[in-house]
Amino acid sequence: MRRAGVAVCPVGIAVGLAAELRAFELDQPLLWLPDLAVGVALIVAGSAVMARATGAGLLLAAAGFAWFAGTIAPEATYWHRGLLVHLIVSYPGARPASRTGWLVVAIGYLLAVVSPLWRNESSAVVLAAAALCLCVAGLRSASVRRRRSRLIACGVGAVLAAVLMAGAITRLAATAGSAALPSLLVYEAALVIAAGCVAFGLRPARRAAVTDLVIELGENRSDMLRDALADVLGDPTVRLGYWNASQARYVDIIGRTLAAPARGEHRVMTRIDRAGRPFAAMVHDSALAADTTFADALAAADRLRSANTALQAEIQARVDDVSASRHRLQIAVDEERRRLERRLAAAPESRLVATLSVLRRMSSRSDPHLDRAVDQLERALVELRDAASGLYPRELAGGLAIGLAALRDRCPIPVELSVTAQRFDAQVEVAAYYLCAEALTNVTKHAQATGVCVHVADVARVLTITVTDDGVGGATLAGGTGLLGLVDRVESIGGRLAITAEPVAGTRLTAEIPLDGQPGLGG
Question: Which single residue of 15, 170, 234, 392 has CA 20 to 30 Å from 325?
Answer without folding.
Answer: 392
